[in-house]
Structures are given as structure tokens and as C-alpha cells.
Amino acid sequence: MDRNSILAIILISLLILGYMFYSSQNIPEQSEIKKADSTVIKSEDSKDAESLFKNDNNSTTQTGSENQQLQYGKFQSFTKGKREVVTIESDLYIAKLSSKGGDLISWELKDYNKWDGVPSQLINDKEGVLFLDFISTDGKDIDSRNLYFKFDNDERNIKISGDQTHTITATLEVEPGKTITKVYKFSGNKFAFNTGVELKNMEEYIPRNYLYKWTKGLTYQEKNSVDESGEAHALVQMNGEVVELDATDDEKKVTREGIIDFIGTKTKYFGAAIKPKDFDGEILMTAESIAYPKTEGMVETYDLSIKIPYSGGTKSQEYLVYLGPLKLDNVENYGLNRMVNLGWWGIRHIGEYIMMPIFNAVHYFIPSWGITIIIFSIFIKLALYPLSITQMKNANKMKILTPEVTKIREKYKDEPQVQQKEMMALYSQYGVNPASGCLPMLLQMPILYSLWTLFRTNIDLRQSEFILWIHDLSVPDTLVHFGTSILGISSISGLALAMGISMFVQQKMTISDPKQKAMVYVMPFMFIFLFSSFPAGLNLYYFMFNVLGIGQQLYINNFAKDRVTSIHDMKKVNKKKGWLATKMEEAQKIAEAQGKVPPGSKGKKGLNPSNPNHRKKKK
Questions:
Q1: Are strands 297-310 and 253-259 parallel, antiparallel or unpaired?
Q2: What's the per-residue H, E or C state across 97-141?
Q3: Same domain as 370, residue 298
Q4: How deeply is 493 buried, as exposed, middle or buried, from its count of CB atoms within 10 A (0-12, 13-18, 19+)?
Q5: Least crowded by CB within 10 Å, which of 68, 182, 331, 456?
Q6: 363 and 273 within one domain
């Protein structure tokens, strides 16, 4: 491999690693973030856009503290009442519904905890989610969370398990026969539930349309809020095509119209998705990000709105809502695969249909996720064996030919064109292709990147302990903490250090070119710092991959039947010239016939020392 090819590969690797490093910066815990001063980066037009989205009468939307003093007009009498809470406990979660708004105010997961050990509570808006927002006929902005509904029974603590289901109805009766009804149907063994809204003879109060809303995204669950913000966004899927909204982008709102597959919001490991049934209409997604400069933290929130037309009479709209972990086995049953981040199109298919099934199959027999990663790395190494074996054999032959290459460089150090020609002749003579290591490396890149996304966002690795100082395979395994940040790096990972050492050993075995020896020391050192911010599970995989590579190289060099230990073991070959080599020779002959000197030769322009007619006469 020539110097330009090596530099190209290094630059590509640095770009990829730089992106990975940028998206996984470590920051202080969220308890510190809450105490810090904040700078709010808002959408300038998101509130106005939402007001226009509600209705075309240009009514003004009032929010925040103004909302508490809002006169509700015809709905004023329903803003007072006694708040009651219904608790639904299933095998997977504990949910709470409030009579004030008839909405969902809590969703606590039983089998998942926040980074600090507190059970994961996903709903981020204390006022509740899945509510109605509309402009009334008397021009008032009505938020249904301030209206008191009545539940259909007096049972306030409900337990369901397995295939059991339970339906709860909350009704706001404005007048006899004129109602807003919200229905929830929960299952004992599913994170998804069915819900719906029915308006009956409400045209006197609600003209044209209303919004069905989810606000403020999801509660953050991880210690590293910057890392979690990197995966947080809102998304809508229409006919299989996904459009994402990220709070860090310039665009702060997305509107779409048509048949909606689902609309949702997510963090790194958890998501909320709303699937309207038989819906063809408009949706709106808005975003907001809050930065905390003193702690280098960040929180992103997302509002989702589905615009439901209403022309009077009885109008029902049903939804399926998924609220839980973004585990592929769970979400694919509801067509929510795209909620799980497995990379872009080609990379995603490798991860979803090849890597993930193999990874889960290994874990089926191995309970420890750390051991699963080790076994999985062996499988991947075996799968890549046809690619890596050629690369390793070629690297070994090039190392043996290094003395001969050095002689050629010394002999023709002032004639680079001749030097290159002689080196290519040497490689061809012994059947060595200096560029053969590039193709296997490039072919492995999509696989390695899909593994990076797999380990980075796989919820199964979250809070999974391994051995010694490795307490969580989904976060960096800090071995040494500097106490300060140097170029964004504040600690050294034990597995990243082990990976760097194994990388050094592997390069020491294969690189013999004096011009490339700096890479043996520089690359491992650089990778140790870059990988120190990566999840422990990912570094464990890379470390094992390198160790297996070292073992494979030792076998090829010392025990393989066709091993080559000296130049005397390398057979000279008579390879048929390829099309490119043939064309290059033809071009060279044409140049010589025209009296042109190849670049780098020492003759004068227009003279060809190999042409008798162009030689100078001796004095």
C-alpha cells in the first residue's frame, strides 16, 4: 500500500472517529445540570406556527404563566373540581391517569432504572400528555388538561397481568348529549396501549379541528445528557419514509400532511410513538434545546401535535401508543423499527438483519453480556476470515521483502519513477500486491460501523455489569480520571487502554516500512484517547477483535502449512499481466518512441537516453 493510500485511510478513519467522539462526550450528572444556569435556545416561530396550525382564524395562543389566568369562556365551569388519580399496575409498568384533563401523567417502568437507580419515569410533562388543545367558538385557547373529567367507575388502583386488559373511560359532559370522551385500554404484558378520543355533538364548542398532543418529549434517563441528546429527536413516518427533527438543527418545526404511519419522540434508549388509526391529515413537530454552559450539559424537548378535523356530530379517532424501551424485539411488532438507531440505510440492514440476530442468538445461551460480546467477536472474526487472511498473508510477505525494497530505494533514491517501477516489478515477481490490504479493510468498514451503532444504542447492554471495574457496558469504563478536561478528554478507559496496547502489538507484527513506523506508535496512542469516551461494550469488542487478529497473525507466521518465513520460501510467479498494467506499458512505449522522458528521470527535456538517436556523442 503506497503512502497516499495509507494517508487516505487514516483521514477517513479520523473523520469517522471524530464524529463518534463528538457524539459521545462525557459530562457531569443531571443532578448538577438542574442546578446550573441555563441558556435557552428556542424556536422563534414554533408557538405562532402552532397557533396557526390549530385554526385559521389567527387567534392568539397564550401559554406558560398566562395560561393560569386564561378565561375558558364556555368551559370555565369545568376548570374547577377534585383531582382524582387512577393507578394501573401491569407486569411492565405503573401508569397514572388524572381526572384533571383525563390524561396520562406518569409511566414508570418496573424493569428499568435511571442512571442513579431510581425507577425510570418517562413522561416529562408534569401536566400530562395525550391531551386536546383547540380554539373554541368564542375564541378561547382551550387546553383540556385544565378541565375536569369524570372516570366511569370508582376503582382507583387496578392490577393487570399477562394477557389481561383493562379499559378506563374519562368523560367531560358539557351539556346532556354533548361530550368529550377519552378511552384507554391497557394490557398486562405490553408496553403499548390503545386510546382514543370521541367528540359528540360538540360543534357548538369546537369548530373545525382540535390538536391531539404530546409535549416536552421524554424524561432523560442517562448520566451523560449530551450523549443522550445526541440520540434524542422527533420523527414521523409516512409510507415507510422517515423524517426526523433535531433540536440542534436550524429548523425547529416540521409539518407533514397525508397518511401517517406513526409520529414519535425518543431519547437514547426509550421512545414514545403514536400510531393513528385510519388517519389522513396533518401533523406538527416542534423542538427546543436547553444548553447548560457551566456543566456542558444539554436537554432537548419535543412537542408532537396531530390535527384532527371536526365538522360536528360524533367523531372518533383511535390510536395505538407505544411507550417503553427501544428494543428491536418489542418495537418491530408495531412497525416502529425506525425508532431504533442502527445507522443509515445500508448499515442499518447489516445491523438489523445480520448482527442483531447473531448477537441475540449468542446471548440466548450465554447469560452474561460481557461474555456474549467476546463470543460474538469470535464469530465476526471467523466470518471475516476470508477477507483478513489475504490481508495478513500479504502483510507478512511485504515484511519479508522489506530489505529488498530498502535496497531499491537506496539505489534509485534520485529517480523516483524508476524506483517505483523496480518496486512494482519486485512485488509482481513474488506475487505480492501492495494494495491488497486496502480492499479487505474497506469491505470491513460497513460491518464495523454497523457494530458501532449496535453497541452504542443496544438497550440490553444498558447498566449491564461485567468484571472488575466494568460496571456498565453501555458507558465508558473509566480507569483514570484527570479531574479536568483536556481537549474534551477527562478520563482514560481501561478497555480503551487495553485496545490501544493490542493495536500496537498488531501493528508491530505487520508494519516494517521505515516510512510507516511512526504509525505504530502514534495511532494506538491517539485511539486510546478517542476510544476512552466510547461505551465499554464497544471497546471490549474492539479489544477482543485485535487479540484475535494477533493470534491469527501468529498462526499465519509460524504454524500455517503455507507460511512464509524468508524470501527463499517465496516462489517467483509468472502472473498474466492485467489490463491496467498492459495499458501502462503501452503508454510508456509510446512516450519513449516520442522521445519524452518519464517524470523524475535526470535527462533533459526532449532527450531519451534509451534512444540511440538521442544520445550525446562522446568528446
A1: unpaired
A2: EECECCEEEEEEEEEEECCCCCEEECECCCCCECEEEEECCCCCE
A3: no
A4: buried
A5: 68
A6: no
Is beta strand 165-175 parallel, antiparallel or unpaired with respect to 280-292? unpaired
Contact of 122 with 216, CB cutoff 8 Å:
no
Using CA atoms, how far apart are residues 410 and 481, in angstroms rounded to an integer? 48
Domain assignment present for 511: yes
Cell readout for 566 is 524468508
CA distance 132 to 145: 8
H helix runs in 2-124, sequence order? 3-22, 30-35, 46-54, 65-68
Three-point CA angle 69, 71, 74, nearest 5°: 155
For 610, the domain range is: 580-614
- Retrieve residue 3's grid coordinates: 503512502
Mind listing the pLDDT tens digit for each residue in 316-333?
A: 999 999 999 999 989 999
Residue at grid coordinates 444504542: 457
- What is the 3-state composition of the chain as percent helix, strand, coil, each rounded to the nearest 5? 40, 25, 35
Contact in structure between 222 and 231 (CB atoms under 8 Å): no
Enclosing H/E stretch for 157: strand 157-159
Q: pLDDT tens across 261-270, in order?
A: 999 999 999 9
> 409 in a domain, yes or no?
yes
- Torsions phi, psi of 539, nearest 5? -65, -35
Domain contains 537: yes
Residues 525 and 418 in one domain: yes
Greater confidence (387 vs 496) lies with: 496
Q: Residue 16 and residue 446: Cα distance in Å, rounded?
A: 12
**Residue 333 to residue 337: CA distance in whole angstroms:** 9
Whole-angstrom Cα distance, residue 132 to residue 182?
10
Q: What is the Cα–Cα distance from 581 to 24, expressed in whole angstroms?
A: 46
What is the DSSP code (8-state) at residue 264? Answer: E
Cα-based distances in Å from 321 to 157, 265, 478, 583: 21, 12, 38, 64
Least Cα distance to 198 among 184, 186, 187, 188 occurs for 184
Cα–Cα distance measured from residue 581 to residue 588, given in angstroms and rounded to the nearest whole number: 11
362, 348 in Cβ contact below 8 A?
A: no
pLDDT value at residue 396: 74
385 and 438 together in one domain:
yes
Residue 332 maps to a domain: yes
Residue 142 three-state SS: strand
By residue count, the chain amounts to 619
Percent of the chain with pLDDT over 90: 41
313 neighbors 253 (Cβ within 8 angstroms): no
**Same domain? 320 vs 369:** no
Q: Are residues 145 and 171 in the same domain?
A: yes
Per-residue confidence at 563, pLDDT binned at 50, 70, 90? low
Strand partners, 130: none
